[in-house]
Amino acid sequence: MKGIATVNFKGGVGKTTITWLLAKYAAERKGKRILVVDTDAQMSLTLAVHLQETGALLGDFESWYEDQHKKKNKTILNALERYDRMEGGHFDFPIDSSFIYQISPNLHFVPSIVDLYWLELEVFDREKVKHFVRALLGKIEHTKTFKYDYVLFDCPPNFTALSYSVLSCSSLILIPVNPDVFAARGVGLMIDGLRYRVQPWPDPRVAVFLNKAKLYRGALTRESDRYWSETKIISQRKRDEGVDIHAWDSYILDRVDIKRAIPGRYFPDEFVEHFESLWRNVEAASM
Prior knowledge:
about 290 residues; alpha/beta; Rossmann fold; two-stranded antiparallel sheet
């Protein structure tokens, strides 16, 4: 079971959409067993996956979320608090269907909770909390019910105790960037920031790719190509500094209706080509 974190400290780049559709593609089109974990207090993914056009949550999920997940204290925050209080090395947090929601046989989900807003890194023992996600995944691996090939984490656009733990144990960090002036500069600042905050740096593989790419006659527009070229230059500089970072030429097109594909039951055919390319890179990087 490999951990993959999607992160970008700039909002609006599409990391939540990418995380979910990549997970849905791998589960539905590739037959992979996927767990997705929403670690963002804004709950963007949790709401997007189960929100109806009326603005209400799907009935089955809402009743599960309120009557089992929250009422039985089985949220991701409850797990972190239990881990922080554990004594004698025993992490007493049983993994069951109150913690993990089963969307389909191959695609499962751990939602976020708004109380993560109050989660501050300083509240927890820094060295102890760093190993929380690794311990949680270990408990999941040892269950008979839940077996996964990949766990995908949708990280918040800020640095929290939970994201610290996620990034400390992920084998691959995905950084989607948009074709704009913040792309190259943002990648450099983010890598420097992560190396400074996550100590010691776990040396994961980092992959940068273009989201919301614009095409003209089957090729990247001049503007998209220029910003992507600048991003690749920065990525190479960081690679020369010893960071295992790769700039993938896989890209996801700028489509207004891509978010509509999130709550849909099936992965849309129109996005298969580009998510196939992205997934091939993910699998190769995870080997």
